[in-house]
UniProtKB/TrEMBL annotation:
Stretches that traverse the bilayer: none
Species: Rubus argutus
PANTHER family the record matches: TROPONIN
Top-level taxon of origin: Eukaryota
GO molecular function: calcium ion binding
Protein name: EF-hand domain-containing protein
Keywords: Calcium, Repeat
Domain EF-hand stretches: 50-85, 86-121, 140-175, 178-213
């Protein structure tokens, strides 16, 4: 996992917007979730992995110089193609918030996070359209990832704390609780700035690692 995460307060405004959207999503769903336990989420990891890897086709299409990253101009073309209309300021804010290694280019795992953030922040479609972005399959994948976060967000405030994560890990099987060090490690993987709170953006990067996107890519490179 990449270790350079940026200043803790640098993206507080963006993270606050994400919290608000998560709260709205959970309220609209009346707190209902198709996930009943952390095991039910883990069982879907292979499906998550395949669905998220499908985004690679979009990434490769707009990585015009094939250098493994998407720069600002390439990103603008991609967003236009997906009919995601953002201001220059919004694009810049999202670009920096997802460029966690400061390379001035969006790598594949960062690209997944960026698209999911845009999807969450985008206003609902008008009555003339049924899709937020021009990819129903991608929407369904992001909706499920958001649902995973909502499952962990027990108090519905749009962010995670250690108590919520521990509760979620042990909720379905109170007699077979996860070892304390496992719960601590899972939370630490999300809580980059060690402030005891995990934003949706932080969760996304950890979740991608958990389902094994980077591992699969590295394996493919080794075999080629």
């Amino acid at each position: 996992m990449l270790c350079c995460r940026g200043s803790p307060n640098k993206y507080s405004r963006l993270d606050a917007k994400l919290e608000k959207k998560i709260v709205e999503v959970k309220r609209c769903s009346s707190g209902q979730s198709s996930f009943k336990s952390i095991d039910s989420i883990i069982l879907k990891f292979p499906q998550f992995r395949e669905e998220l890897k499908n985004i690679r086709n979009v990434f490769d299409q707009y990585d015009e110089d094939s250098n493994g990253t998407i720069d600002r101009e390439e990103l603008k073309k991609c967003l236009q193609k997906l009919q995601l209309h953002l201001t220059a300021e919004e694009i810049e804010d999202l670009f920096h918030s997802c460029d966690i290694d400061g390379s001035e280019g969006i790598q594949f795992n960062e690209f997944i996070v960026l698209l999911c953030l845009i999807y969450l922040l985008k206003e609902p479609p008008s009555t003339h359209t049924t899709s937020k972005i021009d990819s129903p399959q991608l929407e369904a994948t992001f909706d499920t990832v958001i649902e995973v976060f909502s499952f962990l967000d027990k108090n519905g405030d749009g962010k995670l704390n250690k108590t919520e994560v521990v509760k979620a890990l042990n909720e379905a099987s109170p007699r077979e609780k996860s070892p304390a060090h496992v719960s601590r490690n899972r939370f630490k993987e999300m809580d980059w700035d060690k402030n005891g709170r995990v934003t949706f953006r932080q969760f996304l990067f950890a979740f991608i690692d958990w389902v094994g996107i980077e591992t699969d890519d590295e394996t493919s490179q080794e075999q080629s």
